[in-house]
Amino acid sequence: MTAASSGSSGDRLSTLLVHAGEPRPRIGGAANVPIFQNTVFELPGEPEVSDIIYPRLSNLPNHRALSAKLAALEGGAAATVFASGMAAISTSLLTVLRAGDHLLVQEGVYGGTHGFLMDDLVEFGIDHTFVDAEDPAAWQAALTPTTRAFYTEAISNPMMQVADHRAVIDFARVHGLVTIIDNTFATPVNFRPLWLGYDLSLHSATKYLNGHSDVAAGVAIGSAELIERVQHRHDHLGGCLDPHACFLLHRGVKTLELRVRRQNATTLNIARYLAGRSGVARVHYPGLESHPAHARARELFSGFGGMLSFELDGGGPAAARFISRIRLILHAGSLGGLETLVTRPVQISHVGMAPEEQARLGISSGLVRMSVGIEDPEDLIADLDQALGG
């Protein structure tokens, strides 16, 4: 596996998480950036546009420090933060696409992204084609004269597929496409897509970056030129992150590596347990040797993440019975926090997808998605074992 967190002295991920983006000198000597819960800031006598500080412009001290830190984590020149992951996704897509353009999209993406493509971008006159991101031979046929971008997920939600990311980059360079990736599931601990060549890396920072299930936020990371364009659109659409949420995310991200390394290890243990457990038909986790893209995941990632999904014998009734019997694990949407969660994608994350599309992508009524927290792995496995029954 690649050493995604390696770097020069002072530039390693664990150090960047704590120190990158912090103001020098510290504001009022405070070790942490204070919360600037202000909407009004005094202007100099002859102000320029750059002197205007306003929450909607995402340029409060909280925004600036947080954005600088998040950019450094993935090796980006710049970043901008949003009020949610979907705000980051929608704003970024509306930045690189306009009416009449066409987008290539990895099939099986997060339900919110799928809904935005199907319900909103179409109304804006922007077309798209879903493609198998593991089959580069099929992409050429989907290309049109108006194709402008290629959108993928580092690890897909909820089927845990791993796109042929190197091929995506190569294909996009040949055809002049902007490459956009949702890196939420992998996190900068396991994967830095900008290093590979992606143009724009997005996160629902609600999930792993914050890690404490108490903030909704998003981020876009990339080159200075591209982020400036995204920020311009962001200013107009207004999906700005509250300064208190900035503070919480800034605090939460400092422990990202500690959390994700533990979640990597625990999730691999759980995946191996489930793969050998009666009543479980199939486990989707790139860390398993049985995963179709395991070799690719080993090459690209320094860890396989804290997300897995599994299908139960007996379909929907078996999944409902399993969820009704869990004790320690929580039945809840979202992911990436300290606590372990399970949900059925057909009911939550992909409920807006047509049933025939769910079936085509393998999102069955018996599929359970699991976000592994930081609890003791033996306790989690014991809860899974009793919930699965005999």
Secondary structure topology:
Elements: H1 13-19, H2 61-73, E1 78-82, H3 85-96, E2 102-106, H4 111-121, E3 127-131, H5 139-142, E4 147-153, H6 165-175, E5 178-182, H7 187-190, H8 193-196, E6 200-204, E7 218-222, H9 224-237, H10 243-253, H11 256-275, E8 280-284, H12 294-300, E9 307-312, H13 315-325, E10 330-331, E11 341-343, H14 355-361, E12 367-371, H15 377-388
Helix pairs in contact: 1-2, 2-10, 3-4, 3-9, 13-15
What does this structure look like?
This protein has 390 residues and is an alpha/beta fold. The protein has 2 domains: 241 residues, Type I PLP-dependent aspartate aminotransferase-like (Major domain) (Aspartate Aminotransferase, domain 2), CATH 3.40.640.10; 133 residues, Aspartate Aminotransferase, domain 1. It has 15 helices and 12 strands. A 7-stranded mixed β-sheet has the order 1-7-6-5-4-2-3, with helices on both faces. Helix 1 runs antiparallel to helix 2, helix 3 crosses helix 4 and helix 13 crosses helix 15. It is globular. The chain starts with 12 loop residues before the first helix and ends with a helix. 49% of the residues are buried. The N terminus is likely disordered.
CATH topology of the largest domain: Aspartate Aminotransferase, domain 2
- The overall strand count is 12
Largest sheet: 7 strands, mixed
Order of helices and strands: HHEHEHEHEHEHHEEHHHEHEHEEHEH
Gross morphology: globular
- Give the integer mean of the pLDDT values: 94
CATH architecture of the largest domain: 3-Layer(aba) Sandwich
Domain count: the total is 2
Strand content: 5-15%
Percent helix? 25-40%
Query: Strands of the biggest beta sheet: in what spatial order?
Result: 1-7-6-5-4-2-3
Mind telling me the CATH superfamily name of the largest domain?
Type I PLP-dependent aspartate aminotransferase-like (Major domain)
Low-confidence stretches: 1-9
